[in-house]
Each structure stands twice: as C-alpha cells, then as structure tokens.
Amino acid sequence: MTKKGLRTGYKLMEWKVEGEILDTQRRKRIRHLVGRLNKERRQQAKKIDILCNDMVSAQKDFVTQIQSLMFGVNFYEALIGQRSQSALLDTAAVFIRENVSNANVAIFLLESNGFALHIVDKDKPIEIDAAKFESCFTSELVSDISRANHVCRLGDMFEMGLVGNPSEFGRISVAAIPLNRFCQPVGFILLYRASDNDFTNEELEGITGIRAGLCSAITNCNPEVVHNAG
Fold it and tell me: What is the pTM of this model?
C-alpha cells in the first residue's frame, strides 16, 4: 500500500474513532438529559401529590368544621323553648344519644347538699341499675369531675375516687365531660356504652363543643345551680 493510501486509511480510522467518541458523548448527554427530566418529573409528581393531599385534608377539615358548627346549631335549636330543667336535660340527653351511636347519657348536676342524677330511661342501649350506678359516685367525686378541665375517662375517675369494683365496669366504655360556666362548675355529662365500642376523640370533641351552651341553658332554667355549686 502506498504512503498516500496509508495516510488516507489513518484518516478514516481517526474519523471513525472521533465519530464513536462523539456518539458516546452524545449518548451520555442524552442519558443525562433524560435522567434529569425523569427526576424533575418525579419531583413534580411528588409536589402534585402533596398538593392534592393538602387539598383533600383541607377539605376534610372544612367539612368537619361545618359538621361541628351544624351540630352546635342543631343542638341549640333543640333546646329553644325548654322551660323546665327536667325537659331541658331530657332534650339534651336525647339529642346527644341520637348523635353518639349506641350511647347512654347521664347528666350529673351539683347541688348544695350533693348532686342530682338525670338519666333518660327510654330505649337505653345498656340497662343499668340507676340507684346502684348513682351509689358509685360520691359528692366529692362529682364535684371533682365537674371542676376538671378535661374529659375524664374511667381510669381518671377511679383515681379520683370512683366507688366500686373496676371489673363491674369492664363491659362499658365511660367518658365524663365537665360542665363549666365562667369557670364555675355546674356538673358533667356522663357517656357510656359497650366496651368494644370505645368513644372516639371526634365524638367527645363534638360534645365538648356544646357544653358552654348547655351550661347557660341549665343556669337559665335554674340559676341556683351555679350558686349551689359554688
């Protein structure tokens, strides 16, 4: 082969190598570009998911707030026109039972010489001996629960002096919601139902949200309640 032919062959080989290098570099740039685009797409998709979740969460919160507001409005409407304390407590207890599934409702009110217990007897989900039930609560315990600044569960009440064998309460879930008016104790709402259906935070928060209105209604029917409680 002539020198000219060799030079031409070398040139062709150089061009081929350069072409392969350029192809390799081009493929690397393309892979890098595709990888970056995929990463950006995943990040964008993640942001969209977060945004959608935030929107769904905000919507749920809004619906919950509306439901809580409507619960309070409906409750206060139910109390309008109730002149006697007994009718008022009956109406309040029935309304609570209708909105807290399968729950029994007892309302304890402080009095100068102890306390009064109001239980709605009609269609009670759990049958209970009212006299025996009442005997589990001392005047001091009723006063302490009424003055509490939080919902009291069964364990709290035993620590505060609930009378009776804990095993006797094993078949029920219990929650006491204090009734306070301007930091003045009035009594408390006692909810109880089967132990396999424990009260949820949402249910208890709903009842907690109406206690101020119920306190006002009770004291308007019987102003002596607050005086006696003090």
Answer: 0.65
